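ENCODED BACKBONE
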Amino acid sequence: MTPRQIYDSLYQYIGKSDVICDLHSACSPVKGRKYMCVESKSGTRVIDFDSVKTRADIESCIESRKSVDAVVASPSNSVFCFIEMKSWNLLLTHNGNESGIRRQARKYESDLPEKLYRSIEICKQVTHDNSIFDDCHIIYILITDIPVKFSKDSGISSIESNLAALAGTSSNLNMLCNQLSKNIMDNIPKIETRYWECRNFDTELSCLK
């Protein structure tokens, strides 16, 4: 199946779509928050995969599985994207420090791969087709609410080792969050990954070919 065919099948199953701004628990008024960008900025309709998972689990009479937050087909119809959204901003604004960031990153490292693999399993269950991804390009995207920036003066691989002494200022803690997140995504086996800032989601998605 093409990415769009998979998306359409899931849409028919759940009957609705959203934008990531309304699904992100750190930002959505639906979740009792305020838009960080004043108003909903994304125009891309995605499928709330938690809703898909919940219905599939109820129908199968099984305990709730872990899953990604959303899925979408790229505008080019060349890529099917699994999307997980995390908020470093919430941690950083509530007395975030280096040890807390690393502790949270370890949790992400454990959870993110399982969420992807379970979500692939759920897609096959819902579509009644174990071969839907055989000829489909998949990308797993981690979205964050902090600026995604890396040092241009040093290699990405050397950043983390220098941060232990530097962490303490907000800019260095941001850099630590970004480096740990990217390392986690880069180390998920057998899948192409991306790490994006939520505000750039539409632009980055449109560049997938």
In short: Helices lie at 3-14, 20-23, 49-60, 88-92, 98-127, 156-166, 170-186, 201-206. The chain has one domain: 3-94+109-148+191-206.
